[in-house]
Amino acid sequence: MKEEFFKTSEIVLKVENISFFYEKKDLLIKDLSFSLKKNEFLSIIGSSGCGKSTIIKLISGIKKMNSGDIVGKKTAYMPQKDLLLPWRNVLENILLPSELSKKNLNEEKKKAIDYLKKLNLEKYEEKYPYELSGGMKQRVSFIRTLLTDADILLLDEPFSALDAITKENLQKWLLEVLKDFDKSIIFITHDINEAIFLSDRILVCQNRPLDSFKEYIVPKEKKLDLEFIKEVKEKILIDIGGGK
Ligand SMILES: Nc1ncnc2c1ncn2[C@@H]1O[C@H](COP(=O)(O)OP(=O)(O)OP(=O)(O)O)[C@@H](O)[C@H]1O
Ligand SMILES: [Mg+2]
Predict the structure, then answer these.
(1) Which of 19, 102, 139, 148 has its CA 20 to 30 A from that of 172?
(2) At what angle do helices 134-147 and 164-179 cross, to 10 degrees?
(3) How much is the pLDDT for 5?
(4) Residues contacting residue 3 through CB under 8 Å, at least 6 positions apart
(5) Pocket test for ligand 1, best of 18, 25, 54 (most atoms within 8 A of CB)
(6) Which residues line ligand 1 (CB under 6 A)?
(7) Is 0.90 topped by the overall pTM?
(8) In a 10 Å sphere around its CB, with 0-12 CB exposed, 13-18 middle and 19+ buried, how is residue 30 labelled?
(9) What residue ranges define each of the domains in the chain, with the CATH number in brackets?
């Protein structure tokens, strides 16, 4: 880790010329580079199978790339599928990573309860996943990710399984929560409106093997500008080959 660089730079993560394959004859990612800035909300959009989840797994260290370099601050990964353990209640689920990394559980528990209060979930501490709605489960998963103290949150389609209204509420909830925390985000989604609403910058996957992104900057003052949204949306749809 090049600690010195990250002390002085506004960049919290650098992905440099990475290449990756699951099977040797089928290169998935080729010489791909990008970076993430401090407190930036960065979304990645691309057709199914283009390698979005794989990028996040490489950044989190779950998978190892074949070549290239990834340097950055501490990351926490919220996987594409809800991974709450059915036999653990909300609090126990949130404390799972702390248990695994052998942190002081009393301190972590206090922190977890504090987060649950802050995010209006304190009544649910002792509920089990089957007693929660889809949106609540996602909020609990998110709190678990937040509690790990990472600077960078890697969120893989956290809202994709939710109905439109729950999704919209959670998007607003997420932006509110993030105001109180010093985090940088990489957020994967198939939903272009969601990406525009949440992001400072959107990267759209190009080519197979994935070797570059097309980049769209979303200025805060344009987020509600219908003309701007329509224009960006049309361009991204063309980039991803007229998909959904
Ligand atoms: N463990 C694995 N072994 C072999 N191939 C895999 C494995 N995981 C993913 N792949 C393949 O790698 C490609 C990229 O997968 P990945 O999960 O990164 O796509 P994605 O962009 O996240 O897609 P989606 O939008 O559907 O989630 C796909 O073709 C997939 O079949
Ligand atoms: Mg995926």
Answers:
(1) 148
(2) 20
(3) 64
(4) none
(5) 54
(6) 22, 28, 46, 48-54, 80
(7) yes
(8) buried
(9) 1-74+155-244 (3.40.50.300), 84-149 (no CATH)
